[in-house]
Amino acid sequence: MERVQSLAEYLGLAPSGVAGEVPRLEDIADAKQFAEAVLASVEFRRYIVDALTLGTLPPVILCRIMDHGWGKPVQRLEFDDRSVRLEDLTPDVVAEKLERVQRMLSLIQSSRTGDKGRSQSVDEGDELVLASVH
């Protein structure tokens, strides 16, 4: 029969077989090793679980745990405004865009009626718009 883990073992709170002697925190001189030893200690894990249970865990620590577990959220979004001002449009550009809109409209209408045979040429932009309509 297979042994089932206890909740404490699952949460990492139950002491398991120690592979070697654990150094005392007072004996660790390196700051990074000290921090890693604190984070790996049973006492620190108990503190975290107790604080989560009691609702006394500082929000900063909770956020760091969530960032580590789920990934840090995006801190900054950038928007690149590529819109064209109406003052910058020439009559030729307006006519070209209007013609493209009319071609896309006819493609959409023909796709709704089931007319698959297109006699007019289609550029990539028309295909993208048509694909997004379906």
How would you describe what is shown here?
The structure is a single chain. The chain has 134 residues and is mainly alpha-helical. The protein folds into 2 domains: 64 residues, no CATH class; 37 residues, no CATH class. The chain starts with 6 loop residues before the first helix and ends with a helix. The C terminus is likely disordered.
Helix content: 40-55%
Termini Cα gap: 56 Å
- DSSP E strands, number: 0
Report the sheet-strand fraction. under 5%
SS-derived structural category = mainly alpha
* Main beta-sheet annotation: none
State the low-pLDDT regions, or none. 118-122, 126-134
Number of domains: 2
Number of helices: 6
Overall average pLDDT? 76
Q: What is the string of helix and strand elements?
A: HHHHHH
Shape: elongated
Radius of gyration, Cα only, in angstroms? 32 Å
SSE blueprint:
Layout: H1 7-10, H2 31-40, H3 42-54, H4 59-70, H5 91-113, H6 124-133
Characteristic key phrases:
134 residues; 6 helices; elongated; mainly alpha
Briefly characterize the structure.
By secondary structure, this protein is an all-alpha fold.
